[in-house]
Design goal:
CATH topology of the largest domain: SHC Adaptor Protein
Radius of gyration: 21 Å
Order of helices and strands: EEHEEEEEHEEEEEEEEEEEEH
CATH superfamily of the largest domain: SH2 domain
Structural class: alpha+beta
Number of domains: 2
Number of helices: 3
Distance between the termini: 11 Å
Strand content: 35-45%
Shape: elongated
Length: about 270
C-alpha cells in the first residue's frame, strides 16, 4: 500500500549553542570529511519509521538527532527527538547549480561549514511552536539488534516451535498546540497534543506530564477540514464523538490532517 507522504517541519535556523566538552562526533580522525558517508551520525538510506524507532528508545534523550538519506525524495533528512517523545523531521538539501547545502533558511557553501553549524548545537524555531535544539548526534553502530518474536517454544526433540518475522510498527509522531472545542461546554481551549504510535493525547500545556485524555487512533473514522462557530478548523471523528480542532496556521492544519490520514490508513491496512 502506498502511504500518503507525511509533511516535513518548516523551520528557521536560529542561534547557536556551545557544545558540551566531550569527544566530537564531527570528525573522522585525521581525515577530512568529504561526503555524508564519512559522517559518524549519517545512517544511509533510512525511512521515517526506522529513524523514529531508533530515536524513541527509552535510553535516547531529548535533542538527540541523526542524518539520513530519505527514500521518499531526492535529498536528506535530519530526524530529532523533541520534547514529549515527539520526533520531528527536517529537510536538508543540496543545490547542484550553486553548490550549496540548504538547511532551514540557512545556506552553507561546503560540507565543512554545514558540520560546523551542527557542532554549535543549532536551535530550530517555528512560529508558535517549541524550539528544537540539536545537541546529541546519534552515531552509527548504536542501533539495537533486531530480535524475532517467538510464538512457540519447546526443547529440541520434545516438541515443535515456530518463529515469525517481527512485524514493523508505525511510530510516526507529531506534537504541537491545537485549540479544541469542548464536548459539553462548547468553549475553545488551547491544548498541547501529542500523537505517538496509535495514541493521541492532549495536555494542559507542553510542560504537563499527565494527559487530560488519551484517544485510540485505531478507532478514528474520518478527518478533514470543517468550519464551526465561525472558525476554520478540522474535525477528527470517532464513533462516540467528533473533535473540532484549530491549528496555528493553514499549513499546520494540512500537516495535522495528512498525519491523521496516514495513521488511519496504516491501521486500517493492519486489519486486512
Amino acid at each position: 500500500m502506498a502511504y500518503p507522504r507525511r509533511p516535513y517541519e518548516k523551520v528557521t535556523v536560529g542561534q547557536e549553542n556551545q557544545r558540551p566538552n566531550n569527544p566530537s562526533p564531527f570528525s573522522s580522525g585525521l581525515h577530512r570529511i568529504d561526503s555524508f558517508e564519512d559522517i559518524k551520525w549519517f545512517h544511509g538510506e533510512l525511512d521515517r519509521t526506522a529513524a523514529e524507532s531508533l530515536l524513541l528508545q527509552t535510553n535516547i534523550i531529548e535533542s538527540t538527532y541523526l542524518l539520513r538519506k530519505s527514500p521518499r525524495h531526492d535529498g536528506y533528512s535530519v530526524s530529532v527527538k523533541c520534547q514529549g517523545k515527539v520526533i520531528k523531521h527536517f529537510v536538508l538539501s543540496y543545490d547542484n547549480r550553486i553548490h550549496e547545502y540548504k538547511f532551514g533558511n540557512a545556506s552553507f557553501g561546503s560540507l565543512q561549514d554545514l558540520l560546523g553549524h551542527f557542532e554549535s548545537c543549532p536551535i530550530l524555531t517555528k512560529e508558535n511552536d517549541v524550539p528544537v535544539t540539536l545537541i546529541h548526534p546519534y552515531c552509527k553502530g548504536e542501533e539495537p539488534e533486531t530480535y524475532d518474536t517467538v510464538d512457540g517454544h519447546a526443547e529440541a526433540g520434545r516438541g515443535t516451535f515456530e518463529v515469525k518475522e517481527r512485524q514493523s510498527t508505525a511510530v510516526a509522531s507529531k506534537g504541537g498546540y491545537l485549540t479544541k472545542r469542548g464536548g459539553v461546554v462548547k468553549s475553545w481551549k488551547k491544548r498541547w497534543f501529542k500523537s505517538e504510535r496509535n495514541t493521541l493525547s492532549y495536555y494542559e500545556n507542553s510542560e504537563t506530564e499527565k494527559p487530560i485524555r488519551k484517544l485510540d487512533l485505531t478507532e478514528a473514522i474520518d478527518v478533514g477540514e470543517d468550519r464551526i462557530d465561525d472558525k476554520d478548523c478540522f474535525k477528527l471523528r470517532f464513533p462516540q464523538r467528533t473533535f473540532y480542532l484549530v491549528a496555528e496556521s493553514p499549513s499546520d492544519t494540512k500537516e495535522w490532517i495528512d498525519h491523521f490520514k496516514w495513521k488511519m490508513d496504516y491501521y486500517k491496512d493492519q486489519e486486512t
